Amino acid sequence: MTIKFGTDGWRAVISETFTFANLRLVAQAIADHILEVSDADPSVVIGFDTRFLSDRYAAEVARVMAANGVQTWLARADTPTPAVSYTVVNKKTTAGVMITASHNAPRYNGVKLKASYGGSANANQNRRVEYHLEKNLASARGPNLMSFKDAVKMELICIFDPSWAYYEHLSTLVDLDIISSAELRVVADGMYGAGRGVIGEVLARGRTKIHNIRHEMNPGFGGIHPEPIAKHLGLLMSTIQAGHWGVGLATDGDADRIGAVDDRGDFVDPHRIFAAVLRYLLEKRNWRGRIVRTVSTTRMIDRLAERFDLPLVETPVGFSHIADEMLNNNVVMGGEESGGMSIKGHIPEGDGILMSLLLLEVMADASVPLHELIADLLEDVGPAQYARTDLKLIHPIAKKDMVKLLVSLAPERISGVDVDDVQTTDGVKYYLGDGSWLLIRPSGTEPVLRVYAEAPNNERVKALLSFGEEMATKA
């Protein structure tokens, strides 16, 4: 059996590899790691999303933890990943475990491991868990287990609600009074995930009108991936258009990502949300420090950094790289193309709930509809249109071989525009003279080659993507 922890834990298909037996083995390896790094009083927070059997899986992990003498805080109900991560910091526990497969298809479930700082476990920590797992398998050592009821009675497992401490923390990062005074009309799309109803709960005491959709328990997610991208947000778009709502906010399966829809029913991608919130933090709050974005994220961020003479850090894809910067440097804001973002003063973790609230604060302060706010943003630090295509591969490609080949094939011009620079932070990225860029990178989790492009208009984006696909085919 091969169980590998990627950049954000372990994911597998339910009943194939993701079984109770395998989960217990993983839980034991995590418990071994917790005992290894804890000086005294080892402890863990365990949360879960709305997927099939997630609550049962979480309880099973708790049984293993308790049997190993690890003080366990188990969430009472499905909970956003950032709430679990914040609780790790708030309760000063050794680690956190979140049962979720995030935005993946309903047939998947998974385990996210959180470190004591409230962000995803780093590569070394994940390797230690894998080491313990392989060692236990080699020695035929099974997991320690105890009765759930006995563990609760002995207070080795404490069932609790992590929500309110998390909500209280969010209120220190967001001006809820400004949001309330604007009396915004908001549709909150939980996508049947762990963020369902949360935005409304945070804003319950104000004058914001919240209409929840897809907030019922539905482990099948209505037959879609719980990922807040345009093709999965048709219901949110039509709800906005039919009810004359001001904004739609969508969170993914475990609520660490955001997507939005404006008052006209048009999708607002994470690039624009990132740029809008960052501009607000720099102009209105006068925050200063580093700005961090992944290699596949809009250059509107670069233009804002340049305007305010702030250092910009480009990282490989994956929020764990942003988290490293947030832990070690004064970072105003960090974000990625997929919708994971965080700000100074928060945990080093993508947070779709926080970003939803911050977007509402930006709208409330501007006192204009979201489509006008975005139009002003594009006029200010744009223009910027973006698209991505995924090319399925028959065989996986070694990233270093692909990068070497694509660098050697780098042209002097693409679609009539000079190539100013070629970077290999993650894949190969071509920077062009008109401010546009093309990125080609193999996925780190599946046999897919991703081609990304940003340019001043959609025609240029299509031309860049077409060129990128041709380059990928040659390679």
What tags apply to this protein structure?
475 residues; alpha/beta; Alpha-D-Glucose-1,6-Bisphosphate, Chain A, domain 3; 3 domains; six-stranded mixed beta sheet
Helix-strand blueprint:
Elements: E1 10-13, H1 20-37, E2 43-48, H2 54-67, E3 71-75, H3 81-90, E4 95-99, E5 108-114, H4 123-138, H5 148-153, E6 157-160, H6 163-173, H7 176-182, E7 185-189, H8 198-202, E8 209-213, H9 234-243, E9 247-251, E10 258-261, E11 267-268, H10 270-283, E12 290-294, H11 300-307, E13 312-315, H12 319-328, E14 331-335, E15 341-343, H13 352-366, H14 370-381, E16 385-392, H15 399-408, E17 413-414, E18 417-423, E19 428-432, E20 437-442, E21 448-455, H16 458-474
Parallel strand pairs: 2-3, 2-4, 3-6, 7-8, 7-9, 12-13, 12-14
Antiparallel strand pairs: 1-5, 4-5, 9-10, 10-11, 14-15, 16-21, 17-18, 18-19, 19-20, 20-21
Helix pairs in contact: 1-2, 1-4, 3-6, 7-13, 10-13
